[in-house]
Amino acid sequence: MANIIDDATIEYVGILAKLELTDEEKEQAKKDMGSMLDYIDKLGELDTTGVEPMSHVFPVQNVFREDVVTNGDAREQILANAPEEKDGMFVVPQTFPG
Amino acid sequence: MAKEYETVIGLEVHVELATKTKIFCGCSTQFGGAPNSHTCPVCTGMPGSLPVLNKQVVEYAVAVGLAANCKITQYCKFDRKNYFYPDNPQNYQISQLYLPICRDGYVEIETTDESGEACSKKIGIHEIHMEEDAGKLIHDDWEGCALVDYNRSGVPLIEIVSEPDMRSADEVIAYLEKLRLLIQYLGASDCKLQEGSMRADVNLSVRERGAREFGTRTEMKNLNSFRSIARAIEGERQRQIDLLESGEAVIQETRRWDDARETSYAMRSKEDAQDYRYFPDPDLVPVYIDDAWIERIRNSQPEFREAKRKRYREEYDIPDYDIEIITGSKHMADIFEATIACGAAPKKVSNWLMVETLRLLKEREEDPEDIAFSPEHLAKLIRLTEEKVINSTVAKEVFEEMFRADIDPEEYVTEKGLKMVSDDGALRSVVEEVIAANPQSVEDYRNGKEKAIGFLVGQTMKAMKGKADPGTVNALLKELL
Ligand SMILES: [Zn+2]
């Protein structure tokens, strides 16, 4: 494997992704990420001169909605997704004081 | 000798667009609904839901871009900005990083040069991009938790990023005023800082005058009035200068302005790594804005303030000061023109706007944007005074009602019996009564005390409950005396 992911990187990626990994999981993740980067490097070997960067897999553009209200009040169904509810709102842990 | 410092300011301005629905779903954007009553799987980030772009958002963004002399990115797309915060249910915000819809523009502001002379200055617009707003967090200190209302989640925003071209709080305010007017004229947003439909983050650094490199900048958030923006700029400028003077370094950080305490503090947390890992959003297809579409938007741009100002000067005989105030609000300018279109004289309309309207707005701490009476009613009121159906005192009273509840002045005057008594006979008999009841004043007048007639006019007006034309009363008194 050409790309070696060090401990600091896996820690950092863990923080960004809000993942708590065990030591074994970290080792596995390091291996997986390394091989993904190897694959990207492989793709990088291709000569892409003159090829337009692709921004979407389908050759489709301009899919729009008209500015018309189509949704009604679905509070009950939406709030049914909340782990906890209070006063019609989603309850979440306290963030740092706003 | 003390060093001289220069302040370098760039702005990130978020503007909530005036669409009826959210940017990626058919939920209403209306303000003030019960918490979470304007939500659906898309704007609450439910797995498997698919965003579809609101076409009107593109139209507004292009319109603002053209008004700010930008190049339109004809092939543009959306990216995901990844971060975790409970107001952002998807754990990413759909925004535009790589191909923002508008780039390389400018607006012109009026400012003063170093010698204090008035001059105009171009403030560069780096880019404008489309994105979605987040939900609203309500902190419940009692329970030690936070509550989330996603009604604002997915409301369309444009973020206008300026170049670091401003050098003072005055220039910042002038720039914001300019943007606000352009956008209000376009009808793309009401741009109310207090209500959050326009928000400004201030990027500020200081450097020694003449230096070529920029200093380290900080970003200031939570500025919700022109006043707090001005104070925050002054405070931050001083804080940075103090740091540099004492040999310390300015740290690049985000700071939050506390308006009540007039100070700012750093918003930092270990977990708050500023690494957004942007990548193209695979759920949304690219937007291609062809030349015809751009031309169509360009051709439907409204008459902006400068053009309106010029036209008013040519067409209407009203003072420049009035023109400044009226064109300073698109809504007021619309009312002005619509009232004239109903047949009222421009000077009269301008008068009602400049005196009574401004007085009542000030009294109620409202903006010209809040004016709710209809031009037809103002035109009617002006006609009623011109035809001497009501006098000016009564007109003011009627206007207040119109301002408050947009009543029809004609109906109101009839209902309340406020019409002036035009029947000469009825007025004449009241005047006769007043003369009979006030022999002393009559005596004084006859002895050459001209002023005594004023008292008699007043007594007559009082007896008529204000429903008489003071001029007519005066003439009648003179005749009978
Ligand atoms: Zn929705």
Mean pLDDT of chain A: 89
Radius of gyration of chain A equals: 22 Å
Helical fraction of chain A equals 25-40%
Fold-level CATH name of the domain at 7-44 in chain A: Histone, subunit A
**How large is the share of residues in beta strands of chain B?**
15-25%
The CATH class assignment of the domain at 7-44 in chain A is Mainly Alpha
Observed structural traits:
heterodimer; A: 98 residues; mainly alpha; Histone, subunit A; two-stranded antiparallel ribbon; 9% strand; flat; B: 481 residues; alpha+beta; Arc Repressor Mutant, subunit A; 3 domains; 9-stranded mixed β-sheet; 3-stranded antiparallel β-sheet; 15 helices; binds zinc ion
Describe the structure.
The complex is a heterodimer of chains A (98) and B (481). Chain A is mostly helical and 98 residues long. Chain A has a domain at 7-44: Histone, subunit A, CATH 1.10.20. Helix content of chain A is 38%, strand content 9%. Chain A contains 3 helices and 3 strands. Chain A has helices at 7-16, 23-44, 75-79; strands spanning 64-65, 85-86, 89-93. In chain A, strands 2-3 form a two-stranded antiparallel ribbon. Chain A is flat and about 55 Å long. The model of chain A has no long low-confidence stretch (mean pLDDT 89). In chain B, the strands form 4 sheets. In chain B, strands 3-7-8-11-1-12-13-14-15 form a 9-stranded mixed sheet. A 3-stranded antiparallel sheet of chain B has the order 6-5-16, with no helix packed on it. Chain B has a two-stranded antiparallel ribbon with strand order 4-17. Chain B has 481 residues and is of the alpha+beta class. Chain B has helices spanning 55-67, 169-186, 226-245, 291-299, 305-315, 320-327, 330-341, 346-363, 375-386, 392-405, 409-415, 424-437, 439-446, 452-463, 470-480, and strands at 5-16, 53-54, 71-72, 75-76, 79-82, 92-95, 102-112, 118-132, 136-140, 145-149, 156-162, 198-208, 218-223, 254-258, 263-266, 279-280, 287-288. The longest helix of chain B is centred in the middle third of the chain and has 20 residues, at 226-245. Chain B has 3 domains: 5-292, no CATH class; 303-416, no CATH class; 424-480, Orthogonal Bundle (Arc Repressor Mutant, subunit A). Chains A and B meet through helix 1, strand 1, helix 3 and strand 3 of A and strand 2, helix 1, strand 9, strand 10 and strand 17 of B. Strand 3 (89-93) of chain A pairs antiparallel with strand 10 of chain B. The structure holds zinc ion. Residues 22, 25, 27, 39-40, 42-43, 154 of chain B line the site of zinc ion.
